User: Fold this.
Amino acid sequence: MDHTVLAWTAHDSRLIGSCIAALLVIVLLISWLRLTPFLAILLGALTFSVCSGLPILPAIGAFQTGAGKLLGDAGIIIALGSMLGGMIEHSGAAGRVVSMLLSPGGRPVPAALLPWLIAIAAMMIGLPLFFEVGLVIMLPVIVTISKQSGLPLLSVAIPALAGMTALHALVPPHPGPLIAVSILHAQLGATLLTGLGIAIPAVILAGPLYGKWLSRQSGFNIPCPDLPGEAGAGGPAPSGAVSLAVLLLPVSLMLARTVSKVFLPQTGLTARVLDGVGEPFSALTLAVVFAVIMLGWARGVPRHEIGQTLQRSLPPVAVLLLTIGAGGGLKQVLLSAGIADTISKIAVASPFPPVVLVWLIAVCLRQATGSATVATSATAGLIAPLLPQLGLTPAQASLLALSIGSGSVFFCHVNDAGFWMVHELFRLSLKQTIMVWSVLQTIVSLTGLILCCVLWQLL
Assistant:
């Protein structure tokens, strides 16, 4: 590894100051001037450009590239997920699933157990799904359970958010953990099992326990947001089996794709079919079509009403998509100026053991770039040349991958797409979003670090 690259320069100091200035501008524009997050993030990116010396035209190009890439990756998927969520809610399928959760076998579940059941359901759904897709699918269920059970919205929503974010950070087949496993040459099976073992206590702390505490605090009695088609469609209510089938179809297709990649020859017909239908875009498209058939046509719902349900589900995500795109643009402007290398220099100079060092690098990169995947891949790439010197066992390499994943979700803030999804979908203020999302992810991150350190000492 060429350590001359790690020499600190005046340019590095300028980038750090510029990054801080940009983030302060964004927070002030949103919290004080009440500007829309999209415009605030755009102005924050331009502030960084001016302060860092990055020319305006390249900065604008980087912003457009970053926004376009993120919307290209996630925009259509979020729109499809919103349509699926609209059909699930409007048809009464969400209510049917809720009834099954509230009263399995006809016996009502105590309200105190519901947040725990939601956390388990979110972990199951979050295993093969991207966080954005899982949240859109879970939103109708979260809102309906809160309304029917009388529980505060946050006591139901936070366990779901914790379940999905912990899986996203710690458990393959999510992109971040898979990238780290590949770069660090860790064992996939060991990383998956250890990641699940770490994710469970992280979800318990950041989910039901934190949700119960926060929902009781002053200023956090959040009303349930309105959902598209909440009045319900005509025709008989869908059965529990059909409702679950629609909800779990995209999950099952993506999980089948993941299993086939591990256990089936990739040249075979079955593997190729599962790879095609299990890709997120394909899986959600098939799920929307299946929902239209089973929750619409099969129940005798008029075609124009189905069309209106699908159409009404799209406008609510328009602002969300613009905000997410702006977050991607800000990330790309920061990366174009070289902030990733600068942050890495700070972390590498710290005298910490490898399992803590990689966590610190991932934390710093996540704060700067707003992307868990970027933070994970950059951290793994930075530490990979040091592996021969460290002489790590495969189990230690797995712990490094999990520590990186833990660091990649530390205190996610205004340059994070998930931050704005939670902000918009649950109609939260900036302060409420920080307490709900940023602190929740910090709990997951710190829990992951502590357990990785404990396991490191035991090896």
